[in-house]
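stage 2 :: seqdesign
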């Protein structure tokens, strides 16, 4: 997950996605203008192409006395059969593309917010393109720069879809020069927030515009963005203190960035600021928001490195200032932590703190060549990475704790010296060794050290505010023959805080080209009922079948309670048990 490390590919800044940031939702496909504009109109219809995708997941819950949950517990299960379904349909033709998405979540899977329940067609769009201009009307996703002031996207695992509904104009009048202007209202589950959002972004890749003047190994890209929001004061049921405050109806944010390419190096510098915006995230204070980001990457054959730092202060920005949770974000603050794929390594994910933080991340990858002492016969891949995230060093009044509720509504909040860092929020060190031992067997060894501040990230501490965890993983892949492969995982997490130690294991048998059988088990060794579930076991038996563009997955078992995170935003998922059926199809 190191998109910034691709220094050799000097992409526009708006196309760069930082570490840990989830992918944006599907962008409209734009049909290219035919080279022969004199073609007959009947040929235009022959070039129409239809594409789409269906994704649906069912859960049939069953009683589980060990978890203390019954299938008719409506605090966990919205119905006797739960289902999330998405169906995208796109029509692409020369000059024009249109599309829509149907969604069904009348009885959604566990863990989604109450407002997520419903069904309908919340996403519909049409895009026309002629020469170097394109116009979209309807719903769309967009990102300016690194997303510090604007990033709309879809993340179905979190229940996030903050698409804008309105219009967007994109211009590319010269090579390397791109301009975007947009306006619209942001989706809030099955409705749209009342505020208007508008903005513009300009980005100029000088190396593309002046190819003869630039050496291919050098390049400069500059960008500038503006985003505005208009939100009226309509708080009829608000607390008394809100009626005494003055809320600005218009809020503006600005972003400037530059990327330099220097042979194998790539440097990104970006800064953003936002006018004061009292909101639920900052306890209705008037402090301005700011963010600064720096990222340096190096890439050569067999070696790559990434070093980046970020400082954010009061940059949480939503289209409804009174909303909390995972919805209505206009922008996105990347977490600068590695996205973990192993179950126990993902047990303590980091959530970006809205009030501000200092974040650092370093990652180094090295390929030990074949025939060397470390490379052996087949070579060895090494990866070392780490993250360090601290709170800002706030100028707290004497006797005031470092919590968001200490901010006094209607004030300017509390200052923070730019270069000083406060208490530790999160830290980790990741070490991974990937080694092919024989032609048919490869082994991956992974170690993770974490410091995880529960009191800050979760708002509470279990058996201590700071969790210190050590996670060990061994993963092997054995290619038995051309069509059969066996993969295994063995994981162990050790900590004296929270729920204590865990063991996990996975066996996965692939029978190409159609079948895959998976068995997983996760065991907790907590023996203190005051800390949570005692010695709980979470098991799953699953079968996957693939046929052409169809994918079926059927499973039975338990799901552990915990946070599901992506891009620094987290959703709580309760424990559950039952039958799961997933179907995916694309055409």
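stage 2 :: out
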């Amino acid at each position: 997950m190191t998109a910034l490390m691709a220094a050799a590919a000097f992409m526009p800044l708006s196309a760069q996605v930082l570490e840990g940031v989830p992918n944006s939702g599907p962008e409209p496909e734009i049909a290219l203008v035919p080279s022969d504009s004199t073609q007959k109109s009947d040929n235009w219809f022959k070039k129409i192409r239809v594409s789409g995708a269906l994704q649906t997941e069912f859960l049939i819950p069953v009683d589980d006395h060990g978890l203390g949950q019954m299938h008719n517990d409506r605090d966990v299960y919205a119905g006797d059969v739960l289902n999330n379904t998405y169906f995208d349909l796109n029509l692409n033709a020369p000059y024009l593309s249109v599309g829509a998405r149907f969604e069904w979540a009348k009885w959604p899977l566990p863990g989604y917010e109450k407002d997520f329940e419903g069904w309908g067609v919340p996403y519909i769009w049409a895009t026309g393109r002629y020469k170097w201009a394109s116009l979209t009307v309807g719903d769309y996703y967009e990102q300016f720069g690194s997303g510090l002031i604007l990033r709309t996207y879809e993340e179905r695992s979190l229940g996030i879809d903050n698409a804008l509904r309105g219009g967007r104009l994109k211009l590319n009048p010269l090579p390397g020069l791109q301009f975007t202007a947009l306006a619209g209202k942001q989706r809030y589950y099955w409705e749209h927030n009342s505020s208007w959002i508008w903005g513009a972004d300009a980005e100029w890749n000088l190396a593309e515009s002046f190819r003869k003047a630039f050496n291919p190994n050098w390049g400069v890209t500059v960008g500038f963005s503006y985003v505005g929001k208009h939100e009226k004061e309509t708080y009829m049921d608000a607390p008394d203190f809100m009626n005494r405050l003055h809320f600005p109806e218009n809020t503006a944010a600005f972003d400037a960035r530059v990327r330099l390419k220097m042979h194998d190096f790539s440097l990104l510098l970006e800064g953003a600021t936002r006018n004061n915006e009292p909101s639920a995230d900052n306890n209705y204070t008037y402090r301005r928001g700011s963010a600064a980001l720096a990222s340096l990457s190096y890439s050569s054959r067999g070696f790559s490195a990434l070093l980046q730092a970020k400082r954010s202060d009061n940059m949480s920005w939503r289209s409804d200032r009174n909303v909390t949770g995972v919805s209505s974000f206009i922008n996105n603050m990347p977490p600068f932590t590695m996205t973990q794929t192993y179950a126990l390594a993902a047990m303590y994910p980091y959530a970006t703190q809205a009030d501000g933080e200092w974040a650092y991340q370093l990652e180094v990858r090295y390929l030990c060549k074949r025939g060397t002492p470390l490379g052996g016969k087949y070579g060895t891949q090494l990866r070392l990475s780490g993250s360090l995230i601290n709170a800002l060093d706030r100028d707290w009044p004497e006797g005031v704790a470092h919590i968001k509720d200490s901010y006094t509504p209607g004030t300017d909040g509390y200052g923070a010296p730019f270069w000083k860092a406060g208490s530790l929020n999160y830290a980790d060190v990741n070490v991974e060794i990937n080694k092919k031992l024989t032609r048919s067997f490869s082994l991956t060894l992974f170690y993770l050290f974490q410091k995880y501040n529960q009191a800050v990230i979760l708002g509470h501490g279990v058996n201590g505010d700071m969790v210190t965890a050590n996670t060990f993983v061994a993963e092997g892949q054995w290619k038995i023959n051309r069509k059969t492969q066996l993969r295994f995982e063995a994981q162990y997490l050790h900590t004296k805080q929270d729920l204590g130690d865990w063991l996990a294991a996975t066996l996965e048998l692939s029978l190409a080209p159609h079948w895959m059988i998976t068995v997983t088990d996760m065991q907790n060794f907590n023996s203190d009922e005051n800390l949570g579930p005692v010695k709980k076991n979470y098991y799953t038996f699953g079968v996957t079948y693939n046929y052409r563009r169809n994918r079926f997955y059927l499973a039975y078992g338990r799901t552990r309670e915990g946070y599901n995170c992506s891009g620094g935003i987290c959703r709580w998922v309760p424990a559950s048990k039952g039958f799961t059926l997933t179907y995916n199809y694309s055409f």
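stage 3 :: structure notes
- Helices lie at 41-46, 206-209, 240-243, 454-457.
- DSSP finds four helices and 29 strands in the chain.
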